[in-house]
Amino acid sequence: MQMIRHCIDQCWDVLQTVSDPEIPVLSVVDLGMIRGVEINDQQEIIVRLTPTYSGCPATDMLKAQIVEAFTAEALTPVKVMVDLSEAWTTDWMSEAGKKKLQVYGIAPPEGLAHQCGTHVHLTNGVECPRCKSRHTRLLTEFSSTACKALYKCQDCLEPFDYFKCI
Where is the PaaD zinc beta ribbon domain (predicted)? Predict the structure, then answer.
């Protein structure tokens, strides 16, 4: 049992190295896309992956990157199962991931998805990831992806993305 626990811990360490293709400073673990790791009766490693949305075009690429990362560490056989039993939510993002987003220049989601719904509910502005001002304004509800809104800071005058609560 201890050996299986050690193997699963190794798997989580490897998953920390698999980056999101849109935001490379975040791992699939930071984003909360990994719903579980287990070893089945056939001694296969099963990784349950929930993409950020069901039609995500990067899903196959993420599956391949996970298999490649596990193979490089001799953690085989590995199977990545897409798990759509629950829709992904920003509530699953790690606090470390939210901090990485901010350092990267993207304002992280504020609050819990079931409380704030979308960024529109935020009445006291979104914190600018550069200067930390809340004196910001919405430029457009959709930015480079549907999960982000584009804001502009009224103090430092820099535009920035806000990762909406989903």
Answer: 121-164
Q: How far apart are CA 106 and CA 151, in angstroms?
A: 10
One digit per residue, the tens of pLDDT, for the chain of length 166 reads 677 788 999 999 999 999 999 899 999 999 999 999 999 999 999 999 999 988 888 999 999 999 999 999 999 999 999 999 999 999 999 999 999 999 999 999 987 776 555 555 566 789 999 999 999 999 988 888 888 899 999 999 999 999 988 8
| pTM: predicted TM-score of the whole model, two decimal places | 0.88
Tokens for 52? 């950020």
Beta strand 106-107 with 78-82 is unpaired
The count of other CB atoms within 10 Å of the CB of residue 98 is: 18
Structure tokens of 47? 């990784």
Cβ distance 44 to 110 under 8 Å? no
Q: Is residue 115 within 8 Å of 90, Cβ to Cβ?
A: no
CA-to-CA dists, residue 148 to 30, 54, 75, 89, 166, angstroms: 17, 17, 35, 13, 10
Q: Give every CB contact of residue 143 below 8 A, 6+ residues apart in sequence.
A: 149, 150, 161, 162
Would you list the domain boundaries of the chain?
1-87, 92-161
